[in-house]
Amino acid sequence: MPQRKALLELARDRLLNFYAQKSNLEDPKETDGIVFRLSKDDKSCAGDMVPLTFLEFDIPNARPVDVFNVLMAAENETQWDSAPSEMRVLGEWKKYQARGVVGFFDAKPLSTREVYEWQVASANFTSQEFWVVYSTLQNDELRSKEPVRAGAMEMQNCLCAYRITLKAGGGVHVVNTQQVNEHPFPLSARTVANLGWQTSAAFGSHLRTQSQKQEQKGWAANKTEVPAWMLKDKDCVLEKPDESLREALLSKAESSLSGPWEEPPKTVQKLADGQEMKVWQQAATCGGSQAPLFHAEFVVPDAGPQEVFNAVAAKSREAKWNSRLKQVNMTGFTNPGVRGVHEEFATPSVLGWKLAPREAFEWQAAQHNSSRYVMMISSDPDTTIPSFNDGAVRATQCVAAYEVVPDGKGSRIRLVQHLNANVGVAEHIQFLWEKTVISMLGTWASELTEEARNIVADRNCGKGGSCKLLAYDAELLELLSPSPLHRNSSLTIASVLSLAPKQAAFRRLAADVPQWQRAFGKLPLTKALNVTEWENFESQADEVMSLFRLVEHNATDEEKEPFASRAHDALDVQRQGEALASLQWRYLEVVNLHDCNSNLPDINGDHGHRALPFAVLIGIAVAFVALLLACLGCCGVKLYRMRRNRQARQAASLLLSAASSCAASDRPVTVAPNSEASTSASRGEVLRG
């Protein structure tokens, strides 16, 4: 796809350099103050040779910004220009600083022409110079949005550009160029342009009228409905999703995890497996009131950080092992890398009071660096999700941060919890409530330890081939490695592999960016690596390995490590997914850099197919008519002769029939049995007496 900068450079070269040299142009034609010119030479567009057309005219009683606003509102063009029957915006491509537009043009008696164009713009409100550019160059991404309509033919406009400037003394000066390939065979594009020049000029007249109506709206001199991202002059950078919420949550987690770990704990809680949980406590404001803030640390033996992290982070599975969690609802990713979680907890009795269940509406974010996992849970104050039941009380989770790191053969967990459970009077009985919360934390730690060990056991059993492979929370990869923008949901690993060259080894990223690399950049990894949707784990794990083989020459040692062997279970696939996600970003950067600096197709060249000139077509038509007349003449003579022969045969037959009739009626004839007459009669001859 051509970037905004490249298209604007093409437009400026065409109008400021080529058009400025009037020796490049044929003599002008003019109507209603609108000057029409054709280039002397044809230029290449979509494989054919077409002329460049130019319009130049003034618009009084309007400002440059008015003309700009009319041209940028492509979806409204059918309201003031009769040429298109339909114009629609297909979407916005912020990474290209462009919009996509599709248009339909009646071309009777020929079929409707359909065009897919990029739209870019430049606006300088100080110098009052505006540019609007359309182009069909490299428009595969637009065409993939919807197929060419049945009965229509796709046409190209390789470069359509408008330069809009303030005219000395008031008003607007407009210069426009078009490079259209309508595929008008057998006519040439030059013939069509010459025959239809007044139609082209009529467009300028319509634009003039509509711009004057726009001026009458009284908009401010710097007002435009064009989004700001289309007009910024900026370096060509890869567009990334807005991860500001994720970054804020993880920053809050890191800050809270820098707690009092080196200080003596307030208490040590004994866990079910004999391990100890150290607890630190202080008071802090949460949800508008004071609530205890707890720091805790304990070790999960014989379970690695990945197993422990999955036990903590897989919220959709937590209700199976957390005795306090009554129900949970995953509300999805409304922000990149941040998942919504809705939980309902059973609360303990305090001094014989049975507290109502507590509900929490939260954001969840996570990250993984080397062997360290961090997860953050924090309340979403602006949620519109309905409660599980009317009797539940909403709790505020200010901080629930978790850090998981290796510790010998196990893992060490540090957690920070700052929860305002809104327990009313119980909060004022501080020592009882604090004791209750610490007890609940100890129970949770013991249950988490058991869940992590179960994951380890399932993984070991699965590798032995006798147990069902572990199914985990498939969305955790999206938490750890948020997807880039512009995924193609129809792409699969198999489709990426099908585009790759059949070679045993691959070099680093090629300068021409092969199609498989572009496809890899758009591959929805979270979907492709969701093992719960795999039909055959072994074969699809092999596909993942094959995908890595394509990109391994660009992988770091850390990224190669998960691919030491084929994945045995879902957690292996998760680690491989993180590595592939990192590589995917690297490839996207290279593809973007290539697209920023790549050369567009040559639309200034003289290589392409030429249609027949109009005079030659007239000569061919005359020759065809003459040949047709000659054939008709020959056929007429032949038919005349055939008719005369047929009439002669009919006359002879009638005469013979009449003669036979007369012989029979004048007098009878007696024939001897073996006479000559008998022999003649047997041959069908007529005897005459």
TrEMBL record:
Task: Give me the ranges of the annotated region Disordered.
Answer: 665-689
Which UniProt keywords are given for this protein, alphabetically ordered? Membrane, Transmembrane, Transmembrane helix
Q: Superkingdom of this entry's organism?
A: Eukaryota
From which source organism is this entry?
Durusdinium trenchii
Per its UniProt record, what InterPro entries does this chain match?
START-like_dom_sf
Protein name, please? START domain-containing protein
Q: Which Gene3D superfamilies match?
A: 3.30.530.20
Query: Per the record's keyword annotation, is DNA damage included, yes or no?
Result: no
Question: Transmembrane residues, as ranges?
Answer: 614-640
Regions of compositional bias (Polar residues) in chain numbering:
672-682
